[in-house]
Amino acid sequence: MKSSVSPRFLVAICAAVICAGTLKAQDVVVQKDNQKREGQILGIANGQLKIKVGPAETSIPMAQVAGVTKAAPKAFDDALAAWQTGDANKTLSILRPLVDTFPGLPTPWAERASALLGEVYLAQNKLPEAEAAFAAFQKAYPQAAAAADVGLARLAVTKKDFKTARAKLEPIVAESEKITIAPTGKNGAYGQANYLMGMVLESEGNLPEALKAYLSAVTLFSEDKAIVAQAQERANVLIEKQVIVP
User: Fold this and answer.
1) Which residues in 25-56 are b (16+ Cβ under 10 Å) and which e?
2) Fewest CB within a 10 Å sphere: which of 102, 237, 240, 243?
3) Per-residue pLDDT tens for 58-107?
């Protein structure tokens, strides 16, 4: 006779699976004194990281935080998807609350979200908001100097201040020329830097070098699809003019 599984046993198994999934989903904060806290990071406000551990909520001064592990929320992926389609308004509606909730959270996705906010404002031609967003990004992530400089260069190009843009971009483009395969995040920054340098070079009348920069953004550093599309558009214009890469 076949043995049957009791409903109580099945409930226990389901509970164990759910519990395991919950544990995997927990965020982790490591403090400078090596104390570790696991729970749900709720956000950052007034220099305090808010985390829910079990039923209790507590705050940890960011000055005491050594590291954080938190998976990117769905909102971040949704914002990137909207940005890749060129929908700046939708991107902003998703991105702004995310950046406001996790300003300065030391994770790659939060850093990228903060940097992207300025770009979105630029796409909407909101220059004061873009400038404020880039300044906030610099303050929140002082170690991300290259990404901040790309954002400021983008702002300078929008203002047609090509001299300032060139000064910001030159070291980043020079660095990218030594890279064969750039890691995620850095790849996108290199792509933007080359695209913007192409615009600077076009303004100076150096069309062959501009085409080279655009094609680098298209072929070598293609992580940011929106930048790839813009670089390809400019490259096509120069190719139609029979410009040749030096």
Assistant:
1) eebebeeeeeeebebebeebeeebbbbeeeee
2) 240
3) 999 999 999 999 999 999 999 999 998 889 999 999 999 999 999 999 99
Query: Which whole number is the average pLDDT over 20-43?
Result: 84
Q: How many CA atoms lie within 13 A of 159 on its CB side?
A: 16
Domain ranges within the chain, ordered by starting residue: 30-69, 70-126, 144-246
> Rounded CA gap, 115 and 111, in Å?
6
Fold for the domain defined by 144-246: 1.25.40
Give every CB contact of residue 121 below 8 A, 6+ residues apart in sequence.
92, 127, 129, 130, 133
19 pLDDT exceeds 90? no
